[in-house]
Design a protein that fits this description.
alpha+beta; 29% helix; two-stranded parallel sheet
């Protein structure tokens, strides 16, 4: 009965290893939506435009729809909001 046990574990190991290789196909998981997300996928494939957040509404950068941005935020204590936040976030 021992040889059968060895075959069983070899088959089980092969199945586990085959299952471990499946996440490599995860790049295509975003193509199965019920609506067309090709524009969004193309947008996120672009290189983002680097911007720094403003300290007040007048110094806020202008953003344009359908562009990808990488926004560097300003420390909350140095920001003046146009509308006061409901509560202050604790920074780490």
């Amino acid at each position: 009965m021992q040889p059968n046990r060895g075959k069983f574990f070899a088959i089980l190991l092969a199945l586990v290893l085959e299952g471990a290789a499946q996440p490599l196909l995860a790049d295509e998981a975003c193509v199965d939506f019920k609506w067309d997300v090709s524009k969004e996928r193309a947008l996120f494939a672009e290189t983002p435009v680097a911007l720094t957040a403003g300290r007040d509404p007048m110094s806020a950068p202008v953003v344009v729809p359908n562009r990808l941005y990488r926004l560097k935020l300003t420390i909350q204590d140095k920001v003046t909001f146009s509308a006061v936040p409901a509560r202050k976030r604790i920074s780490c």
